[in-house]
Design goal:
Largest sheet: 6 strands, mixed
Shape: globular
Oligomer: single chain
Distance between the termini: 29 Å
Length: about 450
């Protein structure tokens, strides 16, 4: 949460829905709850607290509402959770039923986001069309089948296995062999959602301070560049910017995801591609890609591949990596040749937070009053909503189904010190690229990916 805001909008979303200017903290203040970070996590927490209690709540951000991942993501509001069901079931005090309860809560959170947006009159282009993940090779089709079988082994019926013809009914991409499909995702305009959520918070009495850089969170207080905030409860909702806080350098690793957006495409092009219900889409390669059809008929398409920066640094110039943007366009055209002549109007990126065990968490240290949520590994749009409702219950002292989910009070171990952190993370990113190349060459499941799998499950 350091550095000046860039002169150009950091994303298509923030270009189309610019942030409203709010005043910075005017000096020392006292509240019942102080939330650090005006993204989805912080604002959902403030919103649910404000609508459930008379607590005096302040939200502070180094830049403005939605400056970070909440205004830069790919616009997926999905039921994806970064840790597998098996990993959740293996957490201390957890179980198979607890892991399934977490999954059910994630599924419900997608609908909750849509319901809350509707209730507050937030037009965020919410389209609950689900997600299709294509298999475009024999090895990808094998992974799709294994994922389907694994879902069935957990008693899940929310994942469908599609043959080629069924997949083509949803989206027509080159080389499709089959696909998996889940209904549990909505395409959204994230900047409109985050700005509307901020306004809903303010209507319910929450104060939001812009341009107020936080340097440290301590028991009962938040130190900022403009004064000190005191409160019995403090919420850290800083995700990829967490390493900029004192004592948090190794809490999460900020890894960049980059995104491109085309100009609005013609009806003829969309007739060729599909995505009539604005389904979000991906494929079963190892290095993650993701896309959506926007409400104004653009293709927004993103993926990993940008490097992790030594010392967990987060800087505006890290948002733009020309070789990654070029690769994203190449991949998009490979999927959909009809977009080969389309102009790329926006290129952007941002940091997401990755915990050492790839398991998002939410919790409250009752001794200090400090709460946290994060480590979403890019799956945060709906997970933040679940986090906000859970933090509300924890702060208000309520014992609910949400506070008994296995991610609550989970503490991931710290990342290794440098240079081990830099070496390990970048080696992992490179390994996923190599795994895809290996499978294209051998047409067999990647040995590299098999070695890496235990580290990211």
């Amino acid at each position: 949460m350091t550095g000046a805001a860039p002169l150009t909008p950091p994303s298509l979303w923030l270009d189309q829905a610019p942030p409203r200017d709010r005043e910075p903290l005017p000096g020392d203040r006292e509240y019942d709850v102080v939330v650090v970070g005006a993204g989805f996590t912080g604002l959902w927490t403030a919103y649910y607290l404000a609508t459930s209690s008379d607590a005096r709540i302040a939200v502070v951000d180094a830049h403005h509402v939605g400056f970070g991942a909440s205004g830069r993501n790919g616009g997926w509001c999905s039921a994806l959770f970064p840790a597998s069901l098996g990993s959740l079931a293996a957490l201390p005090g957890s179980s198979r039923d607890a892991a399934l309860a977490q999954h059910a809560a994630m599924r419900a959170s997608v609908a909750e986001v849509g319901a809350a947006a509707s209730a507050e009159g937030i037009d965020c282009d919410f389209a609950h069309g689900g997600t299709i993940v294509l298999a475009r090779s024999a090895t990808q089709w094998q992974r799709a089948q294994e994922e389907y079988d694994d879902a069935r082994s957990w008693g899940r019926d929310d994942l469908a296995l599609l043959d080629r013809a069924q997949a083509d009914e949803v989206v027509r991409a080159t080389g499709t062999v089959g696909a998996t499909y889940t209904p549990d995702c909505a395409a959204i305009h994230p900047a409109r959602l985050v700005h509307g959520l901020a306004e809903a918070c303010e209507r319910n009495g929450v104060t939001i301070y812009d341009r107020t850089r936080v340097t440290a969170i301590e028991r009962g207080l938040v130190r900022t560049c403009r004064g000190t905030l005191t409160a019995p409860h403090v919420v850290r909702a800083t995700e990829g910017y967490t390493p900029t806080l004192a004592g948090e350098r190794r809490t999460v690793a900020p890894v960049y995801s980059l995104v491109i957006a085309t100009e609005p495409l013609s009806a003829e092009v969309w007739d060729e591609i599909g995505l009539r219900r604005r389904e979000t889409f991906s494929d079963h390669r190892h290095l993650i890609i993701y896309g959506q059809r926007t409400a104004d008929d653009r293709l927004v398409f993103g993926g990993r591949g940008a490097p992790y920066h030594f010392g967990s640094r987060v800087r505006p110039d890290f948002d733009r990596v020309p070789r990654v943007f070029a690769k994203l366009r190449e991949t998009l055209v490979d999927l959909f040749p009809a977009v080969a002549e389309a102009e790329i109007t926006h290129r952007w990126g941002g940091a997401l937070g990755i915990p050492r065990d790839w398991c998002a968490s939410v919790g409250l240290d009752r001794a200090s009053g400090v709460a946290w949520a994060g480590g979403y590994v890019g799956d945060g749009v709906s997970t933040t909503n679940l986090a906000g409702r859970t933090l509300r219950d924890l702060i208000l002292g309520h014992d609910t189904e949400l506070t008994r989910l296995p991610w609550v009070d989970h503490r991931s171990r710290k990342w290794e010190p440098e240079p081990l952190r830099w070496l390990g993370i970048n080696a992992g990113l490179r390994a996923m690229t190599l795994a895809d190349a290996e499978e294209r060459t051998t047409r067999r499941p990647s040995a590299v990916a098999r070695v890496m799998a235990p580290l990211i499950s």
